[in-house]
Each structure stands twice: as C-alpha cells, then as structure tokens.
Design brief:
Pfam families: CDP-OH_P_transf. The chain is mainly α. It is built from 6 helices and no strands. The chain has a single domain, classed as CDP-alcohol phosphotransferase transmembrane (TM) domain (Four Helix Bundle (Hemerythrin (Met), subunit A)).
C-alpha cells in the first residue's frame, strides 16, 4: 500500500496525453473530466503520503513533475485551440524554466539545494489549475464562465511573477548566507 501515492502520480503522467488529445480534438467536457480526475489523484496521493508517511524520494521528485507536465501541456493545448493567449502560456513556461535554471545554477555554484515549493509557488500552481479548469468548464458546459477568464488570467500573471521573484529572492538570500559563512 505504501506505493499507492507513486501509482497515483504515475496515473497523472498517463493522463497527460489523453487530456492533450481531448483539448486538441475540442472535446472539452471529456478533457475537463480527466483534468479534474488528475487533480483529485494529486490531492489523494498527497493526503496518503502525509497521513501514512508513504513518502519516497522518487515520489518527492515525480509528483511535482507530473503536476507541471499536466499544467504546461494543458496550457499549450489551450493556446493551440485559441482558448488562452500564447503570451500567458509562455509566461507560465518561462517561470518554470527560471525556477529550474535557478536551482541548477545554485547547485552548480553552492551545492545541494533543498527544493520545496514556496507558498507563492503553490498559489501560482493553484491559480493555473483554476484557470485551466474554468476555461475547460466554460468551453464545455457553462459559457457564462467566460467572464471569469480575464480576471483569472490577470491573477495567473500576478501569481507567476510574484512566485518567480520569490524564488529568485530566496535563492539569492541562501547564496549570500552561504558565501558569508565560507
């Protein structure tokens, strides 16, 4: 049973291609269903890992990768079908590239970096998830949700920028403390 969180993470990886295909096929209701299923699997695997201490190094690495892959692919596909602007997808992708590049640079210059999501990072991911969900919901069932798209886009932009700045500031502070202690 202690492998169940990792199996749920694997399920999220496996759901990425069907979600992408359904968005590109403009089957937004089915895409929404799988996207929500992926979100529920993420919540369940996190709960199980914390509640029963079914954690692993592999799970700690794969879980955020599965989440990011699902969000990035969903944003790319939604941009391809014209439901969200390309510049927003590029901003979300640029934030993630900045975080990975910053972690690699820190590791190269200093050494081990304990990577854990910041509150702003979690908020940014939540806002992206809500945006994708609302866009899919609006495209499939509730056209009235279109009024939420622009405010959510603005929140995703603010969340992404704030999160990127927060990570850069945090790593800069850690680097300075490391440099001062050597």
């Amino acid at each position: 049973m202690h492998h169940l969180p990792n199996l749920l993470t694997l399920l999220r990886f496996l759901l990425v291609p069907p979600v992408a295909w359904l968005i590109l096929a403009e089957a937004y209701g089915a895409a929404l269903l799988l996207f929500v299923l992926a979100g529920l699997s993420d919540a369940l695997d996190g709960f199980l890992a914390r509640r029963f201490a079914w954690t692993s190094r592999l799970g700690a690495l794969l879980d955020p990768l599965a989440d990011k892959l699902l969000l990035i692919v969903s944003c790319l596909c939604l941009s391809l079908v014209g439901l969200i602007p390309w510049w927003l997808t590029l901003l979300v992708l640029a934030r993630d590239v900045l975080i990975v590049a910053g972690a690699i640079c820190y590791r190269w210059r200093v050494g081990f970096l304990e990577i854990s999501p910041s509150r702003l990072g979690k908020l940014s991911t939540l806002l992206q998830t809500v945006l994708v969900s609302v866009v899919l919901l609006q495209a499939s069932l509730l056209p009235a949700f279109a009024a939420l798209r622009l405010p959510l886009i603005a929140l995703v932009v603010l969340g992404s920028l704030a999160s990127a700045i927060d990570y850069v500031r945090d790593w800069t502070d850690k680097y300075r403390r490391h440099k001062d202690s050597t």
